[in-house]
Amino acid sequence: MTMTKLSATSTKYHTCGDFNIELLKYHEDKHIEAYVNILHSYGCYIFPNYPTRASPNSSTLIDHIYTSNASDDLQNFILVHHISDNNPLFISAGSIYPKFHHKKTMRRNLEFFQLGAFLNDLSEIMNGNITKNLYATSVDFVQNRCWKL
Question: What pairs with residue 16 in β-bridges?
Fold first, then answer.
């Protein structure tokens, strides 16, 4: 899909890659400046704005992420490592901190467990012609009747 078509829709997009266009030379090269201006004219945001490759003698910004997402939650990162001088980049479209949701835990109350009724119902299930799909449902039914939550 072209940038013209993408910008005409409300579709959020992220495009990333090694584009080999040195964005650090934005003010030095009129072709790079024109390229960036075209992307901006389509409502495209460019990440990152600092080098993705660095060595003692030079640095470059040829790996880019383009997005139409203008969210305040959007953050960009470069994973700095010592494997090579080219560092991977990524964006996060939400908080970088995981959200923990309290999961409600239910436990069966053994105080009112009816062992005899449970074993009787379970025996009827085992002796019947019950398929595997119905077996789980039947056991759940017996558990819930004889061993309430």
Answer: 65
Q: What span, in angstroms and rounded, lies between the C-alpha atoms of 33 and 31?
A: 5
**Which tops the pLDDT comparison, 94 or 11?**
11
Q: What is the DSSP string of 74-112?
A: -EEEE---SS-SBPPEEEESS-SSPPP-PPP-----GGG
CB burial of residue 87 (10 Å; 0-12, 13-18, 19+): middle
Residues 25/32, Cβ–Cβ less than 8 Å: yes
Residue 140 DSSP SS3: helix
Predicted model pTM: 0.56
- Give just the sign of the alpha carbon dihedral 94, 97, 101, 107: positive
CB of 93 within 8 A of CB of 73?
yes
Query: Which residues are 76's β-sheet partners?
Result: 91
Structure tokens at 108: 């069966």
Burial class (CB in 10 A: 0-12, 13-18, 19+), 27: exposed
pLDDT bucket at 29, cuts 50 / 70 / 90: very high
Greater confidence (73 vs 132) lies with 73
Distance CA 146, CA 149 (A): 10
For the CA atoms of the chain, what is the radius of gyration?
29
